[in-house]
Design a protein that fits this description.
single chain; mainly alpha; two-stranded antiparallel ribbon; 3 helices; flat
Amino acid sequence: MNKYKSLSRKSQRMRIKKRMCTDKVAFETKESAYQKGQQCYQCKYCGKWHRSGKIAKLIAQVNKKLKDKKL
């Protein structure tokens, strides 16, 4: 029996909420959140609109490839 199981689950939920909601900019409408090349979604935590992180992931991948080429 794991006496820390409930604390672990609570911590996991807090990390997920932070990553999905509080670390992102919230927009009131879908139109204001729209940006070319990104998806918009309505947050289940705050009810506002956020942008997906696809562009940020692409930038990170490109930077990693450039860094690897320099080594």
